[in-house]
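Data deposition worksheet. Section B asks for the primary sequence of the deposited chain exactly as it was used as input, without tags or linkers unless they were present during the calculation. Section C holds the resulting structure in token form. Section D is free text for depositor observations; keep each observation to a single sentence. Incomplete worksheets are returned to the depositor.
Section A, Depositor: J.P.
Section B:
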Amino acid sequence: MPTRLSVVTLTLLVSWGQFAATGRAAVVVLANRTTQEVRFTVAVAEGKSRPYTLPKGELLALPLTSGVEIVFSSGSKQHRCRVRLNEIYYFVGDAATMRLIQVGFGGTWRQPPQARDDKDAGPAGRPAERSQSERGNEDGILLKVPVKIMVDQAEPTVQNIWEKRLRQRVKKASDILEKYCRVRLEVIDVGKWESDDSLTKLPELLRDFREKAALGKARLAIGFTGLRPEKNGDRYLGCTPGPLYSHILIREYKLKSEIERFEVLLHEVGHFLGACHSPEGDSVMRPKLGEGKVNLRAFRIGFDPLNTLAMNLVAEELARRPVHGLRELSAPTRRRLLDILTSLARTTPDDPAAPQFIRMMGATPPETWPVRSLSDEVLDGARAVVTAITAEAKREGRRRKGDELTERYFRVAAAECRRLSPEDAVAAYTLGLAIALDRQALLRFLPLRGINWTKIESEIERRQRLAVLGEPTMQGRASLMQSFVISAAALMLVEGQAISAAGVQEELLFLQGGDRFRFDDLAASLAGIAFATQLDTSPELLGELATSFRVGDYLLSAKGLPDSLNHDEFGRQFGATTDERFLEKQDALRKRLLTLPGYQPRPPRK
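Section C:
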């Protein structure tokens, strides 16, 4: 079973070490979420520009002193997109359709950078000015953190061996940090301490380490304990009191490979710089390490976009002045960091780290949706649906497409669930469809707590499904299909049906970094909820769906629906999704929806 890393909340006073700051700037984080490398330029003042190449799956933290324009091409068209400071942007699409979208925070949606022709471009900003010492150092280091490394009496090797090993590990972690947030770790001292070998858990050993390990001139003390936990006992690999605290403690001999021990060190130093647990499986800040991923040659060791921005914000503060806790950060940094932590708390509802960091800032973590208890029969049924759709995709995923392919998948799933009891069939059907037809795993990232997703589909099985799934749509759009199936599943998953179509849409906008509220997506969410509600009261309709499901019977055409609105336009027209003006518009959509053939009463069966 994978080992969980934990952040332990402790009360701590730290002394300020000697920090060297060589630059002051905000950042823009650019992430490549396309299927190929991205080439772009950053337009700077006086008509100059700097070229960049961003490999597939990688990201870049670009230090700036003002907003700039990102210039790139998709197909034959050139785009000039203005970006703002301390924001995250994704390159998405393929070579012909590539665009740059802005990621929203905290459940709000924001305007993305607007593509425009060269002749319409306004004055560009410029990259951050660098000090004399930074100009002499092409690495552009923002912050140097003096580090003391220590081992306890359980270290079996002599000092010249363990010191060389740990210095190399810290240097390797420093190289990664320099790339993502311009932070360099500098080992200025080494030492030993005597651990209390009567303590068995790493958080207890951390408190003991903090009491015995003096910092000296260092800002951060990293201890490596050789004490081995009892069998089936403590599972922690590393822990720290929290961001900006002075001590980290790591189990030195719990993991087998050096690269796994290195990843644990980088994870914990990430916490020191404000990073929190991430739902992204290729991030060093994923909550469970030691599962063997990092041993794969193709695995990328690095940070995710949200935590990259968080570390840059914290590093910039540390470069200016001594800071000992999250509450001591400046107000703008606290606000943006709270946005990031709220986002992480909402996308990792089962992990305590982000809510804990939010409380350290004196704020209240966001609420999660209460989830119904799911029986093993429901989970097994949902798994059977996903398996059946994957098998059907191998047969039909290339031959059929669009709405026709979606209809085929709905029918196959319904046929699979007819063998289940009525009380389990509808939940298994809607849950299985939402997982099987969602390319982005959005359902997993909704604020739902306590669902064991791997019981329905493993990561390997997900990759195999996506390779053959094809392009299912509803009314010609994949996003409408996603809104439909996710809303239907959410209605069945949330206790007391305590969700609304607008609530689901706001969550999806947040997860996807959406910039416009689309009423056809809202109509799809209303349709998914109506569809699940109908099945919940009449599960015998699964027999009909298995032979005759049609998209047009259950989802309105986009023709005649209101235009999409950006955040400001939505606010002017409706205020919020709880406003009476919006509720009237939603009710009108619902009434139109319920006139469709699929929602009409059926004659009673004999």
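Section D:
The two ends are 52 Å apart (CA to CA).
The mean pLDDT is 84.
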